[in-house]
Amino acid sequence: MTSRKYGIFINQPISHRPVTTLPGIWFAAQLKFKEIGVEHAHQILGMFLYYDTTKFMEWLAPFVYRYPDRVAYFNALDEYCRQYVL
After folding, report:
1. Is the separation of the CB atoms in 64 and 73 below 8 Å?
2. Whole-model pTM?
């Protein structure tokens, strides 16, 4: 079963949506991303496409502390890419 947030993310174009539209990303993580100039989901999608799985999860860890949230985030980006990118 997937969350409502996951379903919305997967079924709509990323465009300029904020990072909080991604499953597993909440307000605290949004503030941390903003400190490095990342405010939109498409910026993180770029990092997802650039890094391999391990490096991406390592890059994400300082922003999203809980591992289950990082996995949700990764899975959402992976599914999004399967539908729209690949």
Report:
1. yes
2. 0.84
Tens of pLDDT, residue by residue over 62-72, are 988 888 888 88
Q: Which structural domains are found in the chain, ordered by start?
A: 18-84 (1.10.150.40)
Q: Please report the DSSP string for the chain in residue order.
A: ---HHHHHHHTS--TT-BGGGSTT--HHHHHHHHHTT--BHHHHHHHHHHS-HHHHHHHHTTT---HHHHHHHHHHHHHHHHHHT-
Write out the two tokens for 20: 């909080």
Residue with tokens 């729209």: 84
- Contact partners, residue 7, CB within 8 Å, separation at least 6: none
